[in-house]
Design a protein that fits this description.
This protein is of the alpha+beta class. It has 11 helices and 16 strands.
Length: about 425
């Protein structure tokens, strides 16, 4: 069935989809626990493959550098050497929140109703739960078999960028400024840019292709941090523990219950931030919980951190035998204040969307991107769509027309790079 759907595509679109399907065959799940860079060896395997592919598409100086970051570049065409260099960025890893090995993609025509992903296991794509897919009724969509994620986050971004390079390679007559390309590891565990060398990248402005549904353009995201709350208990044989045992697990559960329900991600949307306990472990004598802290507004973000610290103090007062501590680490900032200094970067993206025939949607990102970190470091980098839906889970999918449009936008940005004013 997949082959039949591919045969109906144009040669360029078929090549694009085949690239994506090839990329998702590489297991690249990142690890929150690992201290290596990249955090998992599979990412280096894909990095080396992408480096070779860049060379085949005419990129110069393609290399895998410190931490597993892949770099490559296309020199400016004649007459565009003085134009600002434009960068394209996507990440290689997939989320550890769902299985990412032995991915079995399948292309199915979405007809507006539930899709059977795995008849043997009774796994069905529930349209009622994920109604955004109704926008893609009548389209060919790449699904999983319901046992893994797909990897559109962000191998669809890699495919779109490679598809742009393939187009330029086939059409050397198209003028463009210098084009810089980078593929990063470990974005899903907030380490995507820790080894990113902006001077070596060589771009004056850039775009991450790491967004969701077709037409989305993202220029503001959460301020983000993670709190680790630890509970120290006292272990005693349960048969003689009255008045002696302090159960760290019970206090952990009570702590989570004390978090405001209205601040949970399942109760918030738009610009509303949240507190999200997403991982917990422990025993009677010691337990811990990770809590994601998110808000677009910097003041409200700081207020959420204060709320957690105050709750820890309250627990230590009320249950002095159960020592509770908190550590808060920052992850990324809202890119909006940094992008406001470079309005022309967003205007180039908007014009590329218009030339690709798209309606532009600019909601706030309820997450973060490598672009947020790069923008904070001085490289303005808004985030563009890849077309994927339902990231980080077994219902992740990718409408093929959306992927093709992501590639088209990348091509238009490359063309527009020859039209922007020259460097001062």
């Amino acid at each position: 069935m997949t082959e039949n759907h591919l045969a109906a595509l144009s040669p360029a679109d078929r090549s694009l989809v085949e690239r994506f399907l090839r990329y998702v065959s590489f297991p690249t799940t990142s690890s929150r626990e690992s201290q290596t860079a990249p955090s998992t060896p599979g990412q280096l395997v894909l990095a080396e493959a992408l480096c070779k592919e860049l060379q085949m598409l005419g990129a110069q100086n393609a290399r895998v550098r410190r931490g597993g970051v892949v770099y490559g570049e296309l020199p400016a065409t004649q007459g565009a050497e003085d134009k600002p260099a434009v960068g394209f960025v996507a990440h290689m890893d997939t989320s550890p929140d769902a299985p990412g090995e032995n991915i079995r993609p399948q292309i199915l025509r979405f007809e507006g109703k539930d899709v059977v992903l795995n008849a043997e296991r009774g796994i069905v794509y529930p349209v009622e739960r994920f109604p955004d897919i109704l926008r893609h009724t009548g389209e060919d969509v790449i699904f999983t078999d319901g046992t893994t994620l797909l990897g559109a986050d962000d191998k669809a971004g890699i495919a779109a960028i490679m598809g742009m390079l393939e187009h330029l390679h086939a059409h050397p007559e198209i003028p463009h400024a210098k084009i810089a390309v980078a593929f990063t590891p470990d974005e899903e565990v907030s380490r995507g840019t820790e080894n990113f060398d902006i001077p070596a990248f060589g771009a004056d402005y850039a775009y991450t292709f790491d967004g969701g549904d077709v037409g989305l353009l993202e220029s503001e995201n959460f301020n983000a941090g993670t709190a680790v709350v630890r509970f120290e208990g006292v272990g005693v044989h349960p048969g003689s523990s009255k008045g002696k045992m302090v159960n760290a697990l019970r206090h952990l559960a009570k702590f989570i219950e004390e978090l405001p329900a209205e601040m949970s991600p399942e109760c918030t949307e738009g610009y509303e931030g949240f507190l999200h306990p997403n991982r917990a472990s422990g025993t009677v004598t010691g337990a811990s919980v990770n809590i994601l802290i998110r808000d677009h507004d910097k003041t409200k973000y700081e207020e959420k951190k204060t709320l957690l610290r105050d709750l820890v103090e309250t627990f230590n007062r009320e249950v002095p035998k159960a020592k509770v501590t908190i550590e808060i680490r920052g992850a990324y900032e809202n890119m909006r204040p940094y992008l406001e200094a470079f309005p022309e970067v967003l205007e180039v993206a908007r014009e590329a969307y218009r030339r690709a025939g798209l309606t532009i949607e600019e909601p706030p990102v309820r997450g973060g991107t490598d672009g947020a970190r790069l923008s904070a470091r001085g490289l303005p980098t808004p985030n563009l769509f890849t077309g994927g839906l339902n990231y980080h889970g077994i219902y992740e999918c990718l409408p093929i027309p959306s992927l093709c449009k992501a590639r088209d936008v990348a091509v238009e940005i490359a063309k527009l790079s020859a039209e922007v004013p020259a460097k001062a």
